[in-house]
Write a structure and sequence with these properties.
Aldehyde Dehydrogenase, Chain A, domain 2, globular, Aldehyde Dehydrogenase, Chain A, domain 1, seven-stranded parallel sheet, homodimer
Amino acid sequence: MKPTIDILRDARSAAPALSAAATADKNRALEAIARRLLSERESILAANAADVEAARETLGAVMIDRLSLTDDRVRAMADGIRGVIKLPDPVGRVLRREVRADGLIIEKTSAPLGVIGIIYESRPNVTSDAAALALKSGNAVVLRGGKEAYRSNAAITSAIRMGLRDAGLPETLVGLVEDTTRESAGEMMRAAGLIDLLIPRGGAGLIRSCVENAKVPCIQTGTGICHIYADKDADADKALRIIDNAKTSRPSVCNAEEVLLVHKDIAAAFLPRLKERLVDRRKEAGLTPVELRLDPAAAAIIRGTPAGEKDFDTEFLDYILAVRVVPDAEEAIRHIALHSTGHSEAIVTENAETAEAFVRAVDSAAVYINASTRFTDGGEFGLGCEMGISTQKLHARGPMGLEELNTYKYIVRGSGQIR
Amino acid sequence: MKPTIDILRDARSAAPALSAAATADKNRALEAIARRLLSERESILAANAADVEAARETLGAVMIDRLSLTDDRVRAMADGIRGVIKLPDPVGRVLRREVRADGLIIEKTSAPLGVIGIIYESRPNVTSDAAALALKSGNAVVLRGGKEAYRSNAAITSAIRMGLRDAGLPETLVGLVEDTTRESAGEMMRAAGLIDLLIPRGGAGLIRSCVENAKVPCIQTGTGICHIYADKDADADKALRIIDNAKTSRPSVCNAEEVLLVHKDIAAAFLPRLKERLVDRRKEAGLTPVELRLDPAAAAIIRGTPAGEKDFDTEFLDYILAVRVVPDAEEAIRHIALHSTGHSEAIVTENAETAEAFVRAVDSAAVYINASTRFTDGGEFGLGCEMGISTQKLHARGPMGLEELNTYKYIVRGSGQIR
């Protein structure tokens, strides 16, 4: 087994070969990688079958599905890479230009970060997606996937490296960590000088561990306790449609709604309709009903589970919605400030003033007026792709696309100027 | 003594009062602060006199000068604040706008960070400068100055808070940490959830401690082992002028040159001229000569101190220059990659190809062609001000102005859209 530190060092040494590469050269390499993913399909599927076989005992059906590759899914990975080819190159954009009276030309110019580290879990397609985004943005990348997907990830990485060689680039631009124990994640977190940006994509425990222990720059991603506030001036039909979509269209993702705040003036009329739509009608239709966890004021209006202490601080990722009645928009804002993870929040109101006060005051990556929180996504936001959703405020906030995988530097061109 | 954590909590509670403030309101508050600095001049000078008196035993003349305020210096602080009033408001800029086919309007909008923490040393003017920049960018700020300047900082903070009250804003928007022991710096580094950005401005020890221990987002600032590479195609006169300026115009600052790399083809002709200019002529003129610390190849050409092992990894901040002869530009780039702190580097060459290869390959905040590294400064770069110079790649790189004291959020306006 190759030591993790050596894989990181190799990536660090290879990075300069890509950081100054022309867009056409990077795209050629990505095309070569897409071809290799297709031509190596059989070995990738065989490796994946072995992973799936080994995981049957320990993983549930949902996780097995996330782990499983098919011919179509490998083709989709290659298509994904071709999608990245079409995206604009984020490197070398002049973000600010200043020509001084003495003739000095100062350009703030986007530049690759260097080496990106990614820690992720069972989905093997992340391996090719993340590698493609890192390479297009001029970075080397070291991937540390989950143990259960190791054979798949190794086969995918092998195909990617073949593509890099085909394109005349060092294969060590993409590294896969061979040690899949907790130790290797820790090594990456401590690899100061070798990793320029570490992106943990996984459960809250992994992300907390990164924030607490990382000596390398790290982006907090993903955890979403998303709130929707139905204001006294809400259009009730709009509110129901938005809440239903945000809660039930895909409860397992980070931009799904977890908490509903309802203005007291509309609660008596609105909550019964909410229960009808999310509970009763879903039951009738044979769908999983939403479990409503109600604060005392809401419980006085409709039936549901009494909300426990932790229900307003939990990312359920399930058909569960915590509901609280609030006296006004200010209290909704205060509740969000106290309980939100800073991912996505929405207000439903026809009152423009209340809406604007809400978006000004709420300190989250995405703040919505009259729309579902489910839109927080790189593709939906027009970034063309996504490396994760940052819930921190520094460097990147919200969906991270190619631009967020760059830094910048000041390039100053002179003719002998001194100060 | 008020506990540091309470000062941080107060700032956190006050922050929303400013984050959504209109530009005119922020400018009015800054003007009120400038007036209070002038009207409270006597008490500020008296407090400063007490600090200076107490420090006479322990601090040298240079540090005493940095600590000392005069009537003119306090007036300059007020002028500095009026300068910040004139700067554009960084908050609320729309950085990207996407209107989707379904009518959803997605705006990536700059927004204040929240609470900024600053740890700094003896210069009391940092107290008003940093407070003004933080307030203009919509942030609350908690200042932790040096022990030796505590009375001065407390008097300045008191004047600032009077100005905030005059303007109808909470005075706790600007906090001064009362505990000036090492413990309070540690408390700030660990104040997760209370500080959105911590800026350590001080010695390498403080900055290292932040990087190693901080649980809050932290910007590495300041340390500058800046290199100048005199290429084989350099105009020797230009090179000498630039090197002289970068080394001797102000050796104590972070953008001063510490290391000179000289191409072997020009070394025999260039190094004697370098010694003449930096050593012999300065001696004749009664100026401090530069001590040249020479690698063996340079020592074979001119006289000087043999370079020790650490001389190529030291921020001298003094009239000392480490000199190495390199075989080519590639080796200069490699040397910089290995030894630089990522602050500022320059190449002197008339060869445009070599120059462009250098700026592409060198991974530092500012990379110069034919100009002095001394230009790396917020004012010189046209940012209008400076909160420090970041040597890290995430969030902010190089001089930090008002824009770097902001984050952004996505504001999404809809009319009932669901996904």
